[in-house]
Design goal:
By secondary structure, this protein is α/β, with parallel strands linked by helices. The protein folds into two domains: 335 residues, Alpha-Beta Barrel (TIM Barrel), CATH 3.20.20.70; 86 residues, CBS-domain, CATH 3.10.580.10. The chain has 17 helices and 19 strands. The strands form six sheets. The protein has a seven-stranded parallel beta sheet. A hairpin with a 5-residue loop joins strand 2 and strand 3. The longest helix is centred in the C-terminal third of the chain and has 19 residues. The chain binds 1,4-dihydronicotinamide adenine dinucleotide, xanthosine-5'-monophosphate and potassium ion. Potassium ion binds next to loops. Its cofactor is K(+). It comes from Raphidocelis subcapitata. Pfam families: CBS, IMPDH. This is CBS domain-containing protein. One of its GO terms (biological process) is GMP biosynthetic process.
């Protein structure tokens, strides 16, 4: 049971409401959270959350919709599902949960030239299966024994519940446990896509929804409180009422309220906080990210709308702070740029293995693709709001993300919050205490007085 919180009685530190009401713009490093009381193990902490009103995720981390961060490979890895598909299970409903009828692999279709051949004519019906609940070790043993590549898991009624594959187990060797994938009720990996707010983006939304089967779209603007977003939002809600719409970006309660009242199912928070962003320098607008997250979350919570803290995340501590200050999800660009799953090839820069990372408002990105968004095809002057550069090789997100999540679980444990709702309760009732750090306190909080050291996060 959570204990009575002594911190309030001690009047130590400040509640978020007190700290963020003082007229300063703070970011994650300015603020330090006070520990609460630990009464559970870190392994008991659940990070399950919502990214929109109706979409649940198993972990509170998503990758940025940027052309040097997220394409198909990143999306597949972030949803914690198997890489690539060379086979398909056939069920009587055409979906997970239906009765398993057979399986089609490349061996069944390699020499079938008529692409209209029904799967029922070529599929393998005589399958080795395992009962629902078979664990990883059991599935691997069965794959070894049967010498098959695929092992469908079925329940007592013969309905498909999962598929274990040799390729997946091989790919996962040496990686930490990946956690449960984020799936829709019919078993598809959850996916969202970013769109603009111009007339031709309506056709893109229709394609994404009808053919791509996306669960959510993000209206992707630096300043989301615009007539353009309100028009696009109302169009999507009329044309595709089932599609969840995330609006943004916003940094104030007023912006948030207008978009939520117009029907936004989620909000993306952050203006100029990104590692590649120059918006605050160029346009003079934005907000310190911790302050932005807190104030937007206060308004969004009134409506039960989740918010995404977007930009400026540099470490697991920043993720814990963003979630503790009211975000339901964090969005990372630079953390995931330079990973194996990010688009682009590695190359050598000053002796280091690197990949390209660039802002979507950089001159380079504008002249490739996001060009027409800025009307720069018809206007002579291009004003960049981002930079283009390189980041170091960061390995695989399949390694990074499980460690980040474990670090956040430990952060939640230190705060005394068992899950997102618990941490939210601490914030709202004011028992989550915090204060700002002086420059010297920030230096003390980092590594100091070492002649040489290696900083290995995990
Ligand atoms: N989070 C952040 O701090 C920032 C993010 N970015 C990223 O850069 C990219 C581009 O952002 P934005 O420049 O804000 O893109 P945007 O497409 O929202 O806006 C580009 C320009 O087009 C105008 N516009 C949009 N819809 C219109 C319509 N229907 N009719 C006429 N004009 C219209 C806008 O007012 C703006 O001047 C996005 O990926 C965004 O996430 C850029 C700057 C800051
Ligand atoms: O001012 C900006 N100019 C840009 O060109 C730009 N491109 C992306 N973004 C935003 O930055 C976020 C990623 O930030 P991080 O690298 O810090 O994770 C992303 O998720 C975006 O919100 C931009 N902001
Ligand atoms: K910045």
């Amino acid at each position: 049971m959570p204990p009575m919180n002594g911190a309030i009685m001690e009047h130590d530190g400040f509640s978020a409401c007190e700290l963020f009401g003082k007229g300063y713009s703070y970011t994650y490093d300015d603020v330090i959270l006070h520990p609460g009381h630990i009464y559970f193990g870190a392994h008991e902490v659940s990070l399950a959350t919502r990214v929109t009103r109706n979409i649940e995720l198993q972990i509170p981390i998503v990758s940025s919709p940027m052309d040097t961060v997220t394409e198909a490979e990143m999306a597949v890895a972030m949803s914690s599902t198997a890489r690539g598909f060379t086979s398909a299970c056939v069920t009587d409903t055409g979906a997970l949960g239906g009765r398993l009828l057979g399986m089609v692999t490349t061996r069944d279709v390699d020499f079938v030239n008529d692409r209209h051949t029904p799967l029922s004519e070529v599929m393998t019906r005589d399958l080795v299966t395992a009962p629902e609940g078979t664990d990883r070790a059991g599935a691997m043993a069965l794959l070894l024994e049967s010498k098959k590549g695929k092992l469908p898991l079925v329940n007592a009624d013969g309905e498909l519940v999962a598929l274990a594959t040799r390729a997946h187990f091989k790919a996962m060797r040496g990686l930490p446990p990946q956690g449960a994938p984020a799936l829709s009720p019919d078993g598809r990996p959850r996916v969202g896509a970013a769109v603009g707010t111009r007339e031709d983006d309506k056709a893109r939304v229709a394609k994404l929804y009808d053919e791509g089967g996306v669960d959510a779209v993000i209206l992707d603007s630096s300043q989301g409180d615009s007539t353009f977003q309100l028009c696009m939002l109302s169009h999507i809600k009329r044309a595709h009422p089932e599609l969840e719409v995330i609006c943004g970006n916003v940094v104030t309660g007023a912006q948030a309220r207008r978009l939520i009242e117009a029907g936004a199912d989620g909000l993306r928070v952050g203006m100029g906080s990104g590692s590649i962003c120059t918006t605050q320098e160029v346009c003079a607008v934005g907000r310190g990210q911790a302050t932005a997250v807190y104030h937007v979350s206060r308004v969004a919570r009134e409506y039960g709308v989740p918010i995404i803290a977007d930009g400026g995340i540099q470490n697991s501590g920043h993720i814990t702070k963003a979630l503790a200050l009211g975000a339901s999800v964090v969005m990372c660009g630079s953390m995931f740029a330079g990973t194996a799953e990010a688009p682009g090839e590695y190359f050598t820069y000053q002796g280091q293995r690197v990949k390209k990372y660039r802002g979507m408002g950089s001159l380079e990105a504008m002249s490739k693709g996001s060009d027409t968004r800025y009307h720069s095809d018809t206007q002579a002057l291009k004003i960049a709001q981002g930079v283009s550069g390189v980041v170091k090789d960061k390995g695989s997100v399949r390694r990074t993300v499980p460690f980040l999540c474990q670090a956040v679980r430990q952060g939640f444990q230190d705060l005394g919050g068992k899950d997102m709702a618990d941490v939210r309760r601490l914030l709202v009732e004011g028992s989550l205490r915090m204060e700002t750090r002086s420059a010297a306190a920030q230096a003390e909080g980092g590594v100091h007085d070492m002649l040489a050291y290696e900083k290995k996060p995990w």
